[in-house]
Amino acid sequence: MSDRPFIPRDRDWHPPSLHPPYRSTVKRAPAARPLAIAPGRAELSGPVFAAETLHPLDHDLIANYAAALGVEAKPIGERLIVHGRVLDENARPIPDCLIEIWQANAGGRYRHVNDSYLAPLDPAFGGCGRCITDGQGRYAFRTIKPGPYPWPNGDNEWRPAHIHLSIFGHALSQRLVTQLYFEGDPLIALCPIVNAIPDQAAVDQLVARLDMAKQAPFDALAYRFDIVLRGRRQTYFENKREGG
Amino acid sequence: MIEGPSNLASTLKETPSQTAGPYVHIGLTPTVADVAMRVADALDVLNGAGERMNLEGVVYDGAGAPVTDALLEMYQLDADGAPLWGRAAADFETGLFRFQTVRPADPFVSLLIFARGVNIHLHTRAYLQTDALEADPVLSQMSEDRRSTLIAQPVDANRFRFDIHLQGPKETIFFDV
Hints:
By secondary structure, chain A is mainly beta. Chain A has helices at 64-69, 200-204; strands at 35-36, 79-88, 98-102, 128-132, 138-144, 149-153, 155-159, 162-167, 176-182, 207-210, 221-224, 227-229. In chain B, 47% of the residues are buried. The model of chain B has no long low-confidence stretch (mean pLDDT 95). Strand 1 (35-36) of chain A pairs parallel with strand 10 of chain B, so a sheet runs across the interface.
C-alpha cells in the first residue's frame, strides 16, 4: 500500500498479543490482527516535546526524587549510566525523541500505590525519569540498578531486573513502549513476558550491554541500550528530512 | 556505523515491544502512582481551538471486567489544524478514563492503549457521529456491525462515551497505521 509511509511493523518480531504463559494476555489479547490502514492526516505527525520544558534533573533518577521532596538523600543501589541512541530502521538518528523511563528500586519495589511487595521503599528513590534525544539521537540517564522481584502469574515468577521505556518518534506510527534488561541476568531466559518474543535475536535486542568506556570513574557503571523505531519507506518522502 | 558494545545487530529491526505493565503510571503519570513529581501536570486536559468536549469510557477485558490499570493516549487536530496530545489513566476502582478536549478537525480522535497483559500497544480511533462518516475511507470498508465498535456515543451535547473491548463479540477494531 503506497499510501502507508512507514515500513510495516513486523508482527512476528514483536511478541504476539496472546501468549498464555503470560497469564494476563489471556483475557486481554484481541483475537483479530490489527487492521492495516493508511494514516489519517493527524496520524502522520505526533506530539512534539521541547527540551526546555523538562526539569534539569529529569534524566537523573539518582537525584530527582530527593530534589523534588527538597531533602538531602541518595538512593541505595548500584549506580548506573544508561545511554544509547535512537535510530530508525534506515539507520538515521532521531533527534528530539522524548524517552520516559520507570523502574523498581534496588530491592525490586516500585513506588506505586498498587505495589505491596515486602521489600522496602527507598526514601530517596522515585523511579521516574525522562529526557529528549540530542541532534545525533543520543540520550543518557543516571539511575540505580533495579532489583528483580516476584510476581503472581498463576505460580510465583521472578522478573529479571528491567527498566521500562516509553519512546516517541516523530509520528504516531513510531510510538513504542518496551523494557530493557541487563547483560548476564539468568532470569531473562526464565521470564514469560520476555519469552513472549518468538525470536532470540529480538530478545537480544532488549539486553543492554555493559559499556566500560562510558563509565563515570569512581561513580557509576555504564550500560548501552540503542533503540530502533520504525523508518519511512525509502520511496516515500525520499528527499525530505526525517520529521520534516 | 555502530561502534562499541551495542544491543543492535547489523540489520536494524524495530526494537521489540514489551508490556507497559501495571506500574506504568510511575513513569507516565507519576502523581497517579502517588509519586510526588510533576505534580502540576494535567495531561488529560487538552487545550486547543474549538468547542470543548469530553471523551470518556472504560477498557474491558474478555471477561467483561474493567481494565483498571489501563493508560490511554489521545492525539488529534484542533479546529485550527494544530496537533493536540494527551494522556489519561483509568480509575483504579472503576476503570473510567476521561479526556477533556476540543472537537477534532477530523471525524475522529486517535487513541493508544497500554496495560498489563498488552504486549504491544493498541491503536484505535473514536469517531464522533457526523455526516462525514459515510465518506470516511476506513469506516466505509467495514460492515455496520464492525464499524459500530469505533463510534463514540453521545451522552449529552458535549460529552461522548467510548468503551473499548479488548476481546469478545464487541471486540474493538485496532489498527496498524
